[in-house]
Amino acid sequence: MAFASLARRGAANLLPAVMIGLCAFVVFGPLTNLFLWAFAEKWFFPARYPTEFGFDFWHRVFRPRAGAWTSLFNSVWIALATVALSMALAVPAGYALARLKLPARAAIMLIFLLPQAFPSLPIFVNIAQMFYGLGLNGTYTGVVLVHSLPGLVYAVWIATAAFSAVDRTMEEAARNLGAAPLRTFRDITLPQAFPGLVAASIFVFLDSIDEFTGTFFVGTPDITTLPILMFNASMGGNYQIAAITALILLIPSIGFMLVIERFLKADVLSRIGR
């Protein structure tokens, strides 16, 4: 009986252990391969592992002629401009969607989701054609605009949830004490919604800095970002350079996701989509 009970207990614990192991393999397997390529000096078939490690390719990536610094600057600058534009539109839109009784509120929220509902390739191809007629192809303005299209999805939906989670009794108390609507918004509403707005900004930033398709069709060859540099390196068989670029893109993603976990609270998440 004791052996049978132990066997049943072991079988019950086996499935969760296998699932955790599979998840760890799916997540850390590609990352391990990425790290190996980033520091591999020589790795030729049929060797299973690199035969020589070093930092020679890191020096190649960051030398002035390689263009990595320019690509990094372009990626960060475009991402910051995309955040500024997206949040400038999302804050008033989110406040209106959270507070006003709009007759077509559900339809408006759905419209902001449409860019994510269709394949990005045909959308960006048509946008590139429109921008070509407007003279926006190959410009920072055009790239920022095309990055803001998917960025508004995160910005508006999270901003709406952030403003919906604000305690209205505090706003009413401030108004009863004589505070004007603008001051109530500045001193009461905005500070409470600020963590959600920070999380929305981070999502927009990460989406923009990783954006490839829109930049490829609207910005290239005049504007090169890190995803474009990584694509060119991988297509040319320079897997070490592509892996190093991918690691550079991975750093802000991991750091900002830790910040999002701190700022995006459960009360805000529960109101997304309402």
Automatic annotation (TrEMBL):
Topology in membrane: Multi-pass membrane protein
Keyword terms: Cell inner membrane, Cell membrane, Membrane, Transmembrane, Transmembrane helix, Transport
Subcellular location as annotated: Cell inner membrane; Cell membrane
GO cellular component, one term: plasma membrane
Segments crossing the lipid bilayer: 12-40, 76-98, 110-132, 144-166, 239-264
Gene Ontology BP annotations: transmembrane transport
Primary site of residence: membrane
Family: Belongs to the binding-protein-dependent transport system permease family.
PANTHER family (UniProt xref): INNER MEMBRANE ABC TRANSPORTER PERMEASE PROTEIN YDCV
Protein name: ABC transporter permease subunit
Protein species of origin: Pseudotabrizicola algicola
